[in-house]
Design a protein that fits this description.
847 residues; mainly beta; Maltoporin, Chain A; 22-stranded antiparallel barrel; five-stranded mixed beta sheet; globular
Length: 847
Amino acid sequence: MLLGFSVVSNAQAYAADDARTIAELKAENEALKRLLQSKNAEEPKTLPLAPVAAPPDQQEQSGPLAAAGADGSATQGDAEVDTLNEVVVTGSRQTGIKARASASPVTVISSSTLKGTGQVNLIDALNKLEPSFYVPARSGDVGNLTRQVQLRQLGPNQTLVLINGKRRHSTAIVNASGTFAGATAVDLAQIPVSAIDHVEILKDGAAAQYGTDAIAGVVNIILKSANHGGSVTVGYGRYDQSDVNPQSKDNGQTENVAVNGGFKLGDADQGFLNLSAEWTDKDYTNNSGQHPTIKAANIPSPGWVNRIAGEPAYQLYDLGFNAGFKLTDDIELYGFGTAGHRKADAQQNFRRYNLLPAVYPTGFVPTIGIEETDLALTAGAKGAFLGDGRWDFSSTYGRDDADIIVEHSANQGLYRDKGFTPTKFENGTFKNSQWTTNLDLTKPVDVDFLPAPLNVAGGVEFRRETYQLIAGDAASRYKEGSQAFPGYQFSDARNESRHVEAIYVELGTKFTPEWQTSLAGRFEHYSDAGDTAIGKGSTRYDFNPRLAIRGTASSGFRAPTLAEQNFSATNVSPSFSNIQLAVNSPAAQLLGAPALKPEESSNFSVGLVFEPIQKVYASLDIYQINISDRIVNTGNLNGPAVRNAIAANGIFFQGSSANLNFFTNGVDTRTRGVDAAADWATEFDEYGRIKWNFTASYIDTKVTDIKNASAQLGGGALITPVIVSGLEDSNPKYKLSLAANYFISDWSFNARVTHYGESSQLTSDAGTGLAPFTRNTIKDTALLDLSVGYDLTSSLNFVVGANNVFDTHPNKTKPITRGSTNAAVYPTFSPYPVDGAFYYARATFHY
């Protein structure tokens, strides 16, 4: 089993599928009947008129895609090629559609490819493999503990995540800082990689098919369904020594254990149960600069006290299961789910000894942490009706509970007034849940004048969502609150819910053997956001077996989340107040803040899928996504009206500085881009083979309109240049990747070069979001990843590797943007980790 970097099985590649007419298929059926009857065989049932491979949530139990090779065995070099013909279930409700024959661009990434990146979580693995993905190096406060993924330079909550085709719940934790403040997207780190069979990424607007959030696309995670065998993997990794903080011992040491196994249920192949369990322990990283005041004072530990600029430490326990059981020949029961528990914390700015010398005589570094429990469970049944029709009824419940905990801290106001302070605080609790129930029906219908059946699909959906924020303990809320992160006040607490009803339909067929098309429509009603009706059309024409053109046009939407409508946070000190105001609060209404409305989008794309040279499969897609009324956080608002609104919210303060923010439909944007991909292999007979994979993405986003503030706020723009820069500039304009994977005998040698285009971000010199501004820039950069794998036996494999072999770092920030502590030496918006080279080793045992 050869691990390391494997070729991404690219769904955009094209191959010729036999385009047979109904008459030809019927003739084949009759010929087969006569043949079997002539051999005194039992007459078979009529064969389907088109290849049928039901979605995973509609399939009979089967083994994993690549058997032992799915985790990187020696057979994987051959098995990986098969995924080029993988039947996908994302992007169309028609069954039997192969990825490279789809009318929409769909990428398929196998489990072995995910594992070959050397990453222990799905977020970092996908960021390595998919060029249109973007994960910033760091965020602020709790946002650094729950990382989120962007697709096609859009917001984290503008991409829908499915598990086996079912909607996944989002994280409960609200990050109020950064360009995408308020986004509560799905936390992909809570899904164990060992449970994943493959990932399908639909890079196309799909809200008309799947509902809210699917503006940028859809990530559909298909779980393993093997009923036998399994694997145990043990891994270790760490970053190279920090170049800006040589005294730091925080090197991101990572330990990981993953176990997966399949079991039979009932007799023969009547059912399956596939189980996965993972444990990951990761240490901090630290790339903070020297503290200038401490260094100048010549205090022991000369200046190396900053620890805020780095990755958090965490322990994560994840479980996953996938099961199916044939109740009768026509009915199958199924279920799947995940459960995770995470304890994580991120270090904050150093506090000097003179802040609270009686408690911390040498100063202190607080930590902001979470203790989080994440659960998801789906149960359903599926079967046949009216011959080749399919029905699927399911119910999915997911929830995420997270306690915010601040440690190694103090409340200065409490100590000043009462003479004591705790050092550990419970600052509040976020709770989020989602309960979705679906009924899906699919039926191919014969139409005389069509060369293929008309696939008619439709369904109904009911969803209930809840959001709750519980105030922190008394000590965390007292006056200015706990250092580093004050507790949530009673005025911030919320307990909200809503329900959503949807009905949808999709039609698909071939008008000629070369021309396929589909239409989809969806109507949704939100109890808090009203009604919406959207549609999508897709088409594809095959000029010949080696060239096809495809295109889509769709409208979409994203309803404001309960968190965006209700989130509130209060930070008050004797000298200032910073308030994140719930946009639906009476105080916000005093400011003329309008209620949030759904974002609306239009998506247009056209592409080619072609085979320029035999067995070189390539694709090229261009697209444009227009979004109106995007939800963003306002800049810092101040003035008499703001002070009155803060007072109306029940908050008393005496300071001279008062800033306020709220979420608003603040901007319209236009995103244009190009996606390209190619897969091929070079054979050397007994000297092995090389699999090649090239992917590229170019993306450009422009803010086309900025909404003005209300009359109460004096008009003018609600959004600052910092937010505009985050939307337009902080992602690389392009990202290119070339992977080469050489397999010979029991060895594998894998290399990947990733080239990132230039990115930049405006920063407020004073940290207020207001002028003057300074631009930090990350120049275009190429990173090299290498790994070597060896099969010691047919069951035991070892791999060693290094990501970012040459220890490349992004350009350093300009000193004026680092603040008084000089901590942020590297930009937080870097598209790759700022910690440099990462070395890892892994052993996998298959049974």
